[in-house]
Amino acid sequence: MEQTDIKSMTLAELRAELISQGEKAFRADQLYQWMHKKLAENVFSMTNLPKAFREWLEKEYEYIALEIVEVQRSKLDGTCKYLFRLPDGHVIESVLMRYHHGNSVCISSQAGCRMGCRFCASTIGGLERNLKPSEMLEQIYRIQCDSGERVSNVVVMGTGEPLDNYDNLVRFIRLLSNEKGLHISQRSITVSTCGIVPGIRKLADEELAVTLALSLHAVSQEKRRELMPIANRYELGEVLDACGYYFHKTGRRLTFEYSLVAGVNDSREDAKALAALAGPLHAHVNLIPVNPVTERNFVQPGEKIIDNFKKNLEKYGINATLRREMGRDIDGACGQLRRKYLRNPAEPK
Ligand code: SAH
């Protein structure tokens, strides 16, 4: 029988569970604190809990903790890439980025992905499985413990489509922002989606204050369909309407992610059309020169074209940033450490 994953439970659920097992409610509070504040790696390190209670927990419940397989540390900018092994053997990756305003962690929401975006390494092997809330939290917990530095921002922009794992995502956000846990402000959490319309609308109604990032990448339905199969399911117009709904419902400014691909979506007309889409939604545009992926053959535009594209957006009053490439000297971009590992598990240390 599958055991209950206690790290994915809310404090109220944990109290009810322990009470139903004849334990005192305060044990749940202690346990919750060990898991989500002290970031205990196992139940045996929970030193103020009776030994018999710890042994019982170990026997009866699943305690999720991720194993670090490999850490790559960039000498250029302090970015660290983590390869983790899940309890069932799947591997996922996460990235720690150090900015002057604090440390940001980019987490995976699924092992693999079934969205099929043409330029993306994470989708090559398809979807393996959804991550549990505890497995999303653990990426942050282990990174905070390993680095010894506080994580202040979380972006759900690693492998996977978070809105394809909706319930676990929302539970993860509530646990991560809970004041009895790491207490990361919802405003410091960003969820990135390829544009699953019902998910965007549902998230808007959750009364959360997280930032939504839409992976737009193209300004017309036709062009978007060439890059992202999800566009066959949801028309660009519908996606933008859902984004408008999110903005009006939450008051949170959206981000449009736009991967610049040479000769595909980097023209002056593209910039103008992008500005026309972003303007009414007050969306911020994040430009990402496409990261070369071993299995893919998309190429970044030259520096000048990238620079002009950004200037064009600004000319139309759009707030645009160029995502600084971090960790170029390590397998820094988008699912590549995991890909490398899956191609040859013996390769990393
Ligand atoms: N599934 C979600 C989140 C994961 S991808 C989404 O689609 O938003 C995070 C971001 O990286 C997305 O904007 C995605 O389109 C982008 N991305 C993926 N592969 C890339 C590559 N090779 N170069 C640049 N951006 C890439």
Strands, helices and their partners?
Blueprint: H1 11-20, H2 25-36, H3 51-60, E1 67-73, E2 80-85, E3 91-99, E4 102-106, E5 110-112, E6 127-130, H4 133-147, E7 151-156, H5 166-177, E8 189-193, H6 197-204, E9 211-215, H7 221-227, H8 236-250, E10 255-260, H9 268-281, E11 284-289, H10 303-315, E12 320-322, H11 336-343
Parallel strand pairs: 4-7, 7-8, 8-9, 9-10, 10-11, 11-12
Antiparallel strand pairs: 1-2, 2-3, 3-4, 5-6
The structure holds S-adenosyl-L-homocysteine (SAH).
The CATH superfamily label of the largest domain reads Aldolase class I
Indicate the CATH class of the largest domain. Alpha Beta
How many domains? The number is 2
Number of helices: 11
Proportion of β residues?
A: 15-25%
Task: Give descriptors for this structure.
349 residues; alpha/beta; DNA polymerase, domain 1; TIM Barrel; 2 domains; 10-stranded mixed β-sheet; two-stranded antiparallel sheet; 11 helices; 12 strands; 36% helix; globular; binds S-adenosyl-L-homocysteine
Provide an overview of this structure.
The chain is of the alpha/beta class and 349 residues long. It folds into 2 domains: 4-62, DNA polymerase, domain 1 (Orthogonal Bundle); 86-343, Alpha-Beta Barrel (TIM Barrel), CATH 3.20.20.70. It has helices at residues 11-20, 25-36, 51-60, 133-147, 166-177, 197-204, 221-227, 236-250, 268-281, 303-315, 336-343, and strands spanning 67-73, 80-85, 91-99, 102-106, 110-112, 127-130, 151-156, 189-193, 211-215, 255-260, 284-289, 320-322. Strands 1-2-3-4-7-8-9-10-11-12 form a 10-stranded mixed sheet, with helices on both faces. A two-stranded antiparallel sheet has the order 5-6. β11, α10 (303-315) and β12 form a beta-alpha-beta unit. α1 crosses α2, α4 (133-147) crosses α5 and α9 crosses α10. The chain is globular and about 70 Å long. It starts with 10 loop residues before the first helix and ends in a 6-residue tail after the last helix. The protein binds S-adenosyl-L-homocysteine (SAH). Residues 115, 117, 119-120, 157, 161, 192-194, 215, 257, 259, 288, 290-291, 293, 334 line the site of S-adenosyl-L-homocysteine.
